[in-house]
Amino acid sequence: MTQSAMPQAATTLPLRIAPSxxxxxxxxxxxxVRDVVDAGADWVHLDVMDGHFVPNIxxxxxxxxxxxxxTDAFFDCHLMIAPVDPYIEAFAKAGCDGITVHAEAGPHxxxxxxxxxxxxxxxxxxxxPATPISVLENVLDDVDLILVMSVNPGFGxxxxxxxxxxxxxxxxxxxGDRPIELEVDGGITTETIAAAHRAGANVFVAGSxxxxxxSKDAYRANxxxxxxxxxA
Length: 232
Ligand code: DX5
Ligand code: ZN
Hints:
Shape: globular
Oligomer: single chain
Order of helices and strands: EHEHEHEHEEHEHEHH
Bound molecules: D-xylitol-5-phosphate, zinc ion
Largest sheet: 8 strands, parallel
Number of strands: 8
Structural class: alpha/beta
């Protein structure tokens, strides 16, 4: 992919690994959160699924509230739920530091983003693989984070959809020099992370690629391998 002659963004945000706890052992979720942070995770990615917006059910605010005391790490909450507005406050109170809502979750995206901002949390918007980036045009000055889905949401262990890489670089151009975190979610492994990083992402959600091996040592090795691969 030839790098367009766009000026380098004034803000180069740090590379962050955000393990998705969807891939962790749910029977010991608190320890799994603590271990992955001790193993070098920058953020903890919380995949909330309602069985309606996505064909899977994961966990709600009470589980997140129970996880909060296990770490001070940034809780990066990805709400794959619709409707989303009635639940934003509960996730904020549960201890999410960033709350990301789907542009497809309802008719009033800007109001959802305003609600997150009003609760003092980092504001995120996310879009599914088939959703055009034009949905972002009118909210670029209202968000701190843009999450690009590189798989169709609902399950871990899927393959990254190659067409989403071009989408990442086009969104990076849209962002310009705004200090917006550009996060990619789904199918991030040592094989795919470099292309996603080159495309412009700086935050990488990884579930199966981090939690494989099932021990803190394995997580540490997996995270180091992802960081090394990103810079390769
Ligand atoms: C949607 C979820 C993803 C998923 C990533 O399916 O939002 O975060 O857990 O899992 P991996 O990294 O295994 O593709
Ligand atoms: Zn996610």
